[in-house]
Specification:
The complex is a heterodimer of chains A (422) and B (385). Chain A is α/β, with parallel strands linked by helices. Chain A is built from 16 helices and eight strands. In chain A, strands 2-1-3-4 form a four-stranded parallel beta sheet, with helices on both faces. Chain A has a four-stranded parallel beta sheet with strand order 6-5-7-8, with helices on both faces. Chain B is α/β, with parallel strands linked by helices and 385 residues long. In chain B, 50% of the residues lie in helices and 11% in strands. Chain B is built from 15 helices and eight strands. Classes of the chains: A alpha/beta (422), B alpha/beta (385). At the A-B interface, helix 6, strand 4, helix 7, helix 13 and helix 14 of A face helix 4, helix 6, strand 4, helix 7 and helix 14 of B.
Chain lengths: 422, 385
C-alpha cells in the first residue's frame, strides 16, 4: 500500500490557531515582565476559566506547556531533571516535564512564563492533579486553592455536589479579589459564560460534521489543533470568532465534498491522549491507510458538548459547577466513557476503535483492557489496543506500533471485503 | 506456646485466607445479614456496622493469588492490588460479599470501582467521594450529604433503617478500637524489643475480618499479655515506615526488615483502621460527627489532602513522636500518590537531616535478596556513622 499524499488538510484555522496561541504566550510573557495581567495556573479539564475572565486574569495551562514541549521533541530533558529530584519513572510525565521546566527555566516558546498569582487546582477526576498543583505551589511559593469537584459516581450530580462546588466558586471569588486587588466583575463573568456557551455550540456543530462521509476533518488529530483556542479563549469574543470561522470553513468543505483524504477508507473512534513526542509519526500511521478519526474521547477533556450540554448565562455559577462536575470526560465515570464510545461508534458510523494506553495517565488508561472487552465482546466492534506515552519519548516503540496498526487495518480491510462479498 | 504468640499466628492465618472463611462463618451465624467490603484506605465502617452489616477491609490478594484474568483488563503500569482485587472477584473469592466500597484515593482504584460494577452486576459497588478541600467551610456539609447517600443505599440493601442510636453505638465501639490500636502502637514505640512490627500488623489487620466487638476483645487481651512479655533489646536502629498505606507489603518483607537490624517503631500499614487522631463525637448528629472527624481530625496520609497541614509536617511529627532514627519508604510498585509524596517527604527529611531509604515492593513479591542487602547496608551506614 502506498503512502497517502496528504496526511492532513491545512486550512486558515490552523494558521489562526497558531496566532492565537502565540498571542496567549505573549500575554504570559507580559505578565512575567510587568506583573499584569494577573495569572492563575489551571487544569484544562472541566475548568472555571470564566471566573478568571471576570478578573481579567489569564490562565496558565501546565498541560498545554507540557504537550507543546513534547510535540517539539523537547520533553526528555526536563523529565530527566525531575527524575533527578526524586520523581519516579512511573510518575506522570506531564508533571515531570512541567516541574523540570520550572527548575531549568525552559518554556515552550523561549519567552518567559510568570509565577502564577494563584495555583488553582480544579481537581476533576485526576488525582494526579492534586499532587501536581501542590508541588507547583511548593516550588513557586504561590498561593494554592484546591477546588474539590466530586467525582460523577451516579448518572447526574446531586444537589449536594452542585452546592459544594458553587460554594467553593464563591470562596474563590473572594480569594481572587484579595490576590488581584480587583473587584469581581459579575457582568463580565456572565458575558464570559455566554461566550463559552456560544463556543460550545459552534464546537459541537463542528464535531457533528464528522458524522458526514467523508468527514471534513480528523476528529482526533485536527481536533487537537482546535483544542488550544478552545481552552485559552473559550470565554472570550475571540474564541467565538475563531470557532465561527472554523465552522464556516468546515461547512464549506462539506459542501465541496472534501474529506481528509481523497477517499476515506476507514472511520475510527480513538480513545486516550496521543503520543505527543511522536505526534506526526503516529498520525502518518493512520494516514497511510486513509483512516479518518470521526470522534475521540480525548477531544472531550475540556468539555463534552456534542450531546447537548452548554454553559448557561442565566445561571452562571451553577452552570460552571455543572460543567466541572458532569460535562467533561475526566470527571465522568468509566462506564459513562464506555457509553460515550458506544454512541460515537454507532452515531458517527465508525468501523473500529483504537485504544491508546498512555502510561502517564491512569485516569485514562487504568482499565482499558476491560473497555476493550466491552467493545469487542458486547458491541462486536474491532478494537486495537496500543501502549506508549503522551509525553515521555522513551515509551514509544515505533516499529511495534506501526506493525500493530498495519495488522489491524489489514484485518479490517479483509473483513470489509468479506462483508461486501456476502 | 504462650497465648499471645498463638494469637499472632491465628491473625496471620486470618489475613492470608483468601477464602474469607471467617467472613462466611459470620454470615452463617447471621442469616440475612450483609457483608460490605471496602477497598483501602478508609471507609466509614461505623455506618456499615450500624446497618447490622459486617465491614470487611480488602487489602488485595497478597502473595497467594496468581493473576490469570486481571492483567488483561488493567494492562501494564498499574499496581498489583487493583489487579488482585479484580482477580479475586473473577475467581469467585468474593462470594461472601454483598457490596464493595471504593473512595477517591487514586485514579486506578477509582476506575477499578466501575470495572467491578460492570463485571459483577449483582454486587452493590459504590464510590464515595472523600473531599480534598477541608479548608472550605462547605466541606463538612458535603461529606455529611455523601454519608447520607451511603446510608440510603445500605438501608435499601439491608431493608431496614439505620438509626441514630445504632450509629452512636458504632462510633463508640470504633473509638475504643482506634484507642486500643493507638495503645498498641505506643507500646511498640516505647518497648520495641517486646513487640515486632509484623506482630502488631497482623493483630491490627485481623480486625478487617471480624466484628469490631471481637477485635476489641482480642486487642485488650493481647495488650494485657504483652504487658507481661519480657525480652532483651536487640541491636537495631529505630525506623518509621511510610508509603504502605494501600497495597500491603508481604509479611516476609516486614520480617526481613526487622531481622536486618530495624525496629519498625511506626508505620502506615492498614492506616484506615486508625484513621482519626481523636475520638469521633458521640453526642449530636453522628453522621455530621463522622464527617467532621474526616475533615478536621484525621491522620495525614498520601491519599487525604489537607493544605492547612502539609503531610511532610505529619511525617516529621511521626519521626519525632516515635523517636525514629530514620525513615523507610516502602512504596508499592506503580503507586502514584506515594511516588509523588516521596519527593516532598524526602525534601523535608533532608532539611531535618533524617536518613531515609526507598524500597519498592509488590504484594506478590517472594524474593528479597536484593532488599536484604539494601536494608543491611543502610543499617550499617547508620550504625557506623
Amino acid at each position: 500500500m502506498g503512502e497517502a499524499k496528504h496526511t492532513e488538510y491545512r486550512g486558515s484555522i490552523h494558521q489562526r490557531q497558531k496566532e492565537l496561541m502565540l498571542k496567549w504566550y505573549e500575554r504570559l510573557n507580559e505578565a512575567a515582565e510587568t506583573g499584569t495581567p494577573p495569572t492563575a495556573s489551571l487544569m484544562i479539564s472541566g475548568n472555571c476559566v470564566e471566573l478568571l475572565e471576570a478578573f481579567g486574569a489569564v490562565p496558565i495551562y501546565p498541560e498545554v506547556n507540557a504537550l507543546q514541549l513534547a510535540i517539539r521533541h523537547q520533553s526528555l530533558e526536563p523529565i530527566l531533571a525531575a527524575e533527578e529530584l526524586g520523581y519516579a519513572p512511573d510518575n506522570c510525565a506531564y508533571v515531570k516535564a512541567d516541574i523540570g521546566c520550572y527548575i531549568k527555566g525552559i518554556t515552550p516558546t523561549g519567552g518567559k512564563l510568570p509565577k502564577p498569582d494563584l495555583v488553582l487546582c480544579n481537581f476533576v477526576g485526576c488525582n494526579t492533579y492534586v499532587k501536581w498543583f501542590e508541588h507547583t505551589a511548593v516550588l513557586t511559593g504561590s498561593k494554592l486553592y484546591v477546588l474539590d469537584v466530586p467525582f460523577l459516581r451516579e448518572d447526574e450530580p446531586s444537589p449536594a455536589d452542585i452546592d459544594y462546588v458553587v460554594r467553593q466558586l464563591k470562596e474563590l471569588v473572594t480569594l481572587l479579589e484579595g490576590i488581584t486587588g480587583r473587584k469581581f466583575d459579575y457582568d463580565r463573568f456572565v458575558e464570559a459564560v455566554r461566550c463559552s456557551a456560544q463556543v460550545e455550540d459552534l464546537w459541537s456543530q463542528i464535531k457533528h460534521l464528522a458524522r458526514r462521509s467523508p468527514s471534513p476533518f480528523d476528529a482526533y488529530f485536527d481536533a487537537i489543533t482546535l483544542m488550544g483556542p478552545l481552552y485559552v479563549y473559550r470565554g472570550t469574543p475571540e474564541g467565538v470568532e475563531f470557532f465561527r470561522a472554523a465552522l464556516e470553513e468546515m461547512q464549506a468543505r462539506v459542501a465541496a465534498g472534501q474529506g481528509v483524504y481523497e477517499q476515506e477508507k476507514f472511520r475510527l473512534v480513538i480513545e486516550g491522549p496521543p503520543p505527543y513526542p511522536y505526534f506526526r509519526t503516529f498520525r502518518d500511521m493512520f494516514a497511510k491507510w486513509k483512516a479518518c478519526t470521526v470522534a475521540s474521547t480525548y477531544s472531550t477533556v475540556g468539555g463534552l458538548w456534542e450531546f447537548g450540554a452548554r454553559h448557561d448565562p442565566a445561571h452562571p455559577f451553577e452552570s460552571v459547577a455543572l460543567h466541572m462536575l458532569a460535562q467533561n470526560v475526566t470527571n465522568r465515570n468509566y462506564l459513562q466513557r464506555y457509553e460515550q464510545i458506544r454512541r460515537y461508534l454507532e452515531e458517527w458510523n465508525a468501523d473500529g476503535l483504537i485504544i491508546h494506553f498512555v502510561k502517564s495517565c491512569r485516569l485514562f488508561s487504568a482499565g482499558q483492557g476491560d473497555m476493550r472487552d466491552y467493545v469487542t465482546k458486547k458491541l462486536g466492534i474491532p478494537t486495537l489496543y496500543i501502549e506508549s506515552d503522551l509525553e515521555d519519548p522513551r515509551y514509544f516503540a515505533e516499529a511495534q506500533t506501526r506493525n500493530r496498526i498495519d495488522a489491524f487495518f489489514e484485518a479490517l480491510e479483509h473483513s470489509k471485503l468479506t462483508a461486501g462479498a456476502v | 506456646m504462650p497465648t499471645v504468640e498463638r494469637t499472632f499466628e491465628q491473625c496471620q492465618d486470618l489475613i492470608t485466607d483468601l477464602s474469607f472463611e471467617r467472613v462466611h462463618r459470620w454470615k452463617d451465624q447471621h442469616p440475612g445479614a450483609r457483608v460490605i467490603g471496602y477497598f483501602p484506605v478508609y471507609a466509614p465502617v461505623e455506618i456499615i456496622h450500624a446497618a447490622g452489616m459486617l465491614p470487611v477491609g480488602l487489602n488485595g490478594g497478597g502473595d497467594r493469588l496468581d493473576i490469570q484474568h486481571a492483567d488483561a483488563r488493567f494492562g501494564s503500569f498499574i499496581c498489583s492490588i487493583v489487579k488482585t482485587t479484580l482477580e479475586m472477584g473473577m475467581r469467585d473469592h468474593l462470594k461472601a460479599f454483598d457490596g464493595i466500597l471504593f473512595s477517591s484515593i487514586c485514579d486506578s482504584a477509582r476506575n477499578l470501582c466501575f470495572v467491578m460494577k460492570r463485571n459483577f452486576p449483582d454486587l452493590y459497588v459504590d464510590f464515595l467521594h472523600l473531599p480534598h478541600n477541608p479548608s472550605s467551610p462547605a466541606c463538612v456539609d458535603f461529606l455529611t450529604c455523601e454519608y447520607g447517600r451511603l446510608i440510603r443505599e445500605l438501608e435499601r440493601i439491608g431493608g431496614k433503617p439505620i438509626t441514630e442510636v445504632a450509629l452512636q453505638h458504632a462510633i463508640s465501639l470504633y473509638n475504643h478500637n482506634r484507642q486500643l490500636i493507638r495503645n498498641l502502637y505506643a507500646f511498640r514505640a516505647q518497648k520495641s524489643h517486646l513487640l515486632r512490627a509484623w506482630e502488631s500488623y497482623v493483630l491490627v489487620r485481623a480486625g478487617n475480618f471480624m466484628p469490631v466487638e471481637e477485635h476489641n476483645l482480642l486487642l485488650e487481651e493481647s495488650l494485657e499479655q504483652l504487658s507481661q512479655r519480657s525480652g532483651k533489646p536487640r541491636d537495631s536502629i529505630r525506623v518509621a515506615v511510610e508509603g504502605a498505606f494501600c497495597e500491603q507489603p508481604p509479611l516476609d518483607l516486614i520480617k526481613l526488615v526487622e531481622d536486618a537490624g530495624c525496629y519498625l517503631v511506626d508505620d502506615d500499614f492498614v492506616i484506615g483502621q486508625s484513621w482519626f487522631v481523636e475520638d469521633v463525637g458521640v453526642t449530636g448528629d453522628p453522621v455530621h460527627a463522622l464527617a467532621e472527624s474526616y475533615v478536621n481530625g484525621a491522620v495525614y496520609s498520601s491519599v487525604r489532602h489537607d493544605f492547612r497541614a502539609p503531610r511532610w509536617d505529619g511525617l516529621a511529627d511521626k519521626v519525632k513522636r516515635s523517636r525514629a532514627d530514620a525513615v523507610l519508604f516502602l512504596i508499592a510498585k506503580f503507586c502514584e500518590p506515594a511516588y509523588f509524596d516521596y519527593v516532598l517527604f524526602k525534601k523535608k527529611l533532608e532539611e531535618l537531616s533524617v536518613p531515609h531509604l526507598l524500597l519498592e515492593f509488590e504484594e506478590k513479591q517472594f524474593t528479597f535478596d536484593r532488599v536484604r542487602t539494601e536494608v543491611e547496608t543502610f543499617v550499617e551506614s547508620l550504625v557506623f556513622d
